[in-house]
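Late entry, evening session. Most of the bench is empty. Finally got around to the prediction I had been postponing all week. Sequence below, unchanged from the version circulated by S.P.
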Amino acid sequence: MDIVGHRFSDKLQYVFHVDSGTRFGKTAGTTLIVCRFDVGGIAECWVGNADYVRGDAGHLSGLEGQKHRFRVFAGLRDDPFFNNVTGTRSALNFAGAALEHGTKMDAAGCPLFDQATSQEIIDRWKHTDGGPASNFLAGWKSSSLVISVDLDLVSGGGKLLAVWAAVHKSPRADTSHARTSHDKIPATPGLGEQIERVGRPLIKNGLIGPLAPAAVSDQRKEEYNRVARTGWSQFVPDLERTLGLYDGFDGKCENGWLAAHKGEASHRYRELARVLADDRLWINSASTVCTQFLAVELSALGNSGAATSDCGGRTPNYDAVDILRSLWATGQTKGIDDGVDHDDHVHSTTEFPFLAEP
């Protein structure tokens, strides 16, 4: 979990939700990994009621739990996300201008861009201010919370894991930080008000009101951040609208991921919107081969070429931005390229704490 800031707050809780099940879309168990920090930066973390740790988690080797079932690192690292933000904004602005100047939409909300407009959108996406693409996030640092955990602690419901993270305000009544004997695990604290959440990349920032006025878009994103999981489905209409927009960027409609809807045209993007509104990143923990971003989702939803035995999920080195936008626009994992295909640092997929030095 990466936070844009130089330290973790002593007024917040940082939480990994790890749901588990036996088939995609359905989970039967949940494990919470909860961390908080005091004013001096001392970390305190729980994995459910199974293990607990308190201390300085800033060393590269991390801090091991009392029962030796998990390890925690918390400190500044290179931000692993890479993205041509400027080119993306230029492409979206050009598409928005075309719509304002008369480009029509079909019954499902897919813009009928002509070939020249489509080519300009895609070209702007892979350039920065008309020149070579650059990673807007190059050199960024982030406070990173890294957890390595024994699999059996988080897979009680099955080997398919659905992971999402959230930040909560610390409850007012829970201001003390536990001190306990070495062999006794204190109770996991209750969670306060949720103020931010994320599962898959780009769902919130890429699909919630990208062409809306900033005040409108920001407000809707705040609502997205704060809603409980039982209310996630309320964002299906938001996602449908934007998926329709993306589907037209290559000059073709009805070729986006899951867009070949055989029923009412206005529902063309509903199936994918429902999948994405359940904003959890899926991992096949039975596999030790991890080569394909979103492998679990792609395989379960029948995409040709999906690696059925891959662990899926998202390593820090995957070009998640290009893959997602290509799926939304073309239905394939290639086709939309923002010109930035790797971070300015190389991150490890084997050596804790995985993320590169800042």
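Two things to note before I forget:
The chain has two domains: 2-80+139-198, 85-134+201-279+315-330.
The radius of gyration is 21 Å.
Will write this up properly tomorrow.
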